[in-house]
Every structure is written in C-alpha cells, then in structure tokens.
Design goal:
alpha+beta, 343 residues, 7% strand, Serine Threonine Protein Phosphatase 5, Tetratricopeptide repeat, single chain, Cyclin delta-3, 16 helices, 5-stranded antiparallel beta sheet, PAB, 48% helix
C-alpha cells in the first residue's frame, strides 16, 4: 500500500551518526512585522493541526532575509498539502507540509515547493531557524545580517547563539549542522559529494546508507533516489535499481526530483503510471472492494495515487477536487476542507 500520509518520528536536536560525516560594524535595525497571526490561525483552523511553536520567529527571519511573506491560503498551482509562508526573489515558495494522515503531535516539516512536489528543507521549524542562524554567523562581519540574531534574541536561549560555531572548533559547516542542529537532506548529499571528490567511495557509500535510515526522513522518497545515484556511480547497478524502486513506494511528490528521473533509475517504463491510472477508475475501486479492502482505505489510496499522478506533470489544481472528495469519503473532513481551500 502506498503511504498517503506521514509517520510519527522524533526530532532530536542532534542525531547519532557515523564518523565519516564529519570529515565590526554596528547593527542597524529596520522595522518588520513581529507577529503573523494569519498563518497560525490558518494552520489551526483550516489545516486542523497545531501551529509550530516558533512559527512567528521563522516568518520574521524569512522577511529579514528578503522574502515576501505570502498568504497561507495562496495555494493555487501548488501541491495542495502545503501552507505557504514566503516567496523569495527567484519565486521559490517556502512552506510547511501538512501530511494528510499525520499522527497527533507530529511536527510540520519546512519545505520548498517545486513543480513536482516538495523539497524537504528541515524536519521542523526550530531546526530550520537554527540553520539560518549558523549559516549567517559564518559570514564575515560586512556580509552578516545582525537583524537575524536580533529577531531570535527574545527566545530565552532556545536558538543558536552567535559565535557558537567558532567556539566549537568543528572543522566544517556541514559537520556542525549535522552534529549540533539536525539532519538536512542537502547537507547529507553535500557530504557524499565531498567524499567522492576526495576519492573516498567507502565513506560516500556509508553516508548514503545513513541517509536512507527510515527513522531519519520517514515518508520521503528523496534519500532512496539519491542513494540510487550513489550506488550507480560506484557500479552497483542492481542495488541502485532496488533503491530507486523503494523510493517510488513513497509519495512521488517527495522524490526531490521529477518522477521520470527516479523511474529511469528504477528501470521502469510507463507501466507503473498506467497501473495507477487503472487503480483510480471505477473498475479499480470495485476490484479493491471484491478483495475485501475497506472503503475508507480505498479512498485514501485513491487520494495518494491521484497526488502521485499530479506530481508527474505538476498539474495539482486539476485533481484537487477529487482528492478532497477522497479524503471526505475516508472520514477526514478537516483534510478535505484544507485541500479545497482557495485563498
């Protein structure tokens, strides 16, 4: 069964991982909004989940970085499972992901919205804020934006403090983030590329294997796509194919790339797309009923399949009504309302 929702997972501040992963101007402060009640209200009342504790701080920091804060209901043309937060100068949208079947208490990941789905930026808001601060701190004094530290200074030392990276004596930004802040897909992928650049294929493979541990990024197919690329690079083509096929058991909008790239790694033709198209027909639903599958589960599976198909072309708006209807048939009325919301 394809996973249409999320899996509960803990989000430690730092994680245990293999050793191969480590390898004077005065500030002026401009006025920014200190509160964004619209987003918190939308998450609570429309997305029907708990707003992240530090959401206001993240929005304020995104604004300081130059992003335009956008309406949380501005979802037209986007995958309907996101709550938009901001848009940067290149047009990229930062958002929170609302897993359809997320267990109570699961934190909302921070994602970048792309045509085919989402790219995971951080497993939660707090880790993303800390990463922003660390990356700002390593800049020289002429480039550093002191306002970001000012924006996070009223949180009773919950966030990264300026100077901690230098005082840690950790050799690299990537190692510091992984040891002290959390796990980030792009940072782990960068570590793999660094190992390859040094000719250390063994460390690259070990890091790739660490990346795909299921408790690290549950629900996301991206780690398995990337691991497939790593395995192919060292000539392990059969294992690469298997890893890509595992990736395609996850929602296709979590692959971190277009569907076709993952399908090529998996050595799939169009048969999988045709199979899914058949599953969402009346005949497919009747077949599932005859096999004894519960109607609610059939509806959830159909919603997941429709989102997969929409991710292939990025045609989210064309399927949103039927996706919402599926969630309503499964008894998830709040999710259906969220899916349909048009700001």
């Amino acid at each position: 069964m394809k996973a249409g929702g999320g899996v509960v997972f803990s989000v430690p501040r730092a994680a245990a991982f293999p050793a191969v992963l480590f390898g004077h101007r005065r500030p002026t402060f401009r006025c920014y909004s200190s509160s964004f009640p619209e987003h918190a209200s939308f998450i609570k009342d429309v997305a029907a989940t708990q707003p992240p504790e530090h959401l206001n701080h993240l929005l304020k920091m995104l604004q300081i970085k130059g992003d335009q804060i956008i309406s949380p209901g501005a979802k037209q043309g986007l995958i309907p499972l996101v709550v938009p937060l901001s848009k940067n100068k290149s047009g990229s949208v930062t958002a929170l992901l609302r897993w359809p079947t997320a267990p109570a208490g699961m934190e909302m990941p921070v994602v970048e919205v792309r045509k085919y789905g989402v790219w995971l930026l951080s497993k939660n808001v707090e880790q993303y804020i800390n990463r922003i601060l660390v990356e700002e701190d390593i800049k020289n004094s002429q480039e550093r934006n002191e306002e970001l530290f000012h924006a996070s200074s009223s949180t009773e030392n919950k966030f990264y403090e300026k100077g901690d990276f230098a005082s840690s004596q950790i050799s690299s930004l990537e190692t510091y983030l992984l040891k002290k802040v959390g796990l980030f897909p792009d940072i782990l992928e960068r570590k793999v590329e660094q190992h390859f650049g040094k000719g250390d294929n063994v460390s690259a493979l070990v890091t790739g294997e660490f990346y795909i541990k299921r408790d690290h990024f549950p629900g996301f197919g991206r780690p398995f796509v990337f691991n497939a690329e790593v395995l192919l690079k060292v000539g392990r083509s059969i294992e690469s194919k298997d890893s890509a096929r595992v990736a395609l058991k996850s929602p296709w909008w979590t692959l971190g790339c277009e569907y076709q790239k993952a399908a090529d790694l998996a050595q799939w033709e169009d048969e999988q797309i045709e199979y899914i198209k058949e599953r969402v027909t009346d005949e497919g639903r009747q077949d599932d009923l005859k096999k004894g599958k519960e109607p609610a589960q059939i509806a959830l599976d159909e919603a997941a399949f429709l989102l997969d198909l929409a991710s292939v072309e990025g045609t989210w708006d064309a399927s949103v009504d039927r996706v919402a209807e599926c969630y309503r048939e499964a008894g998830l009325h709040d999710i259906a309302t969220f899916i349909l919301y048009k700001g």
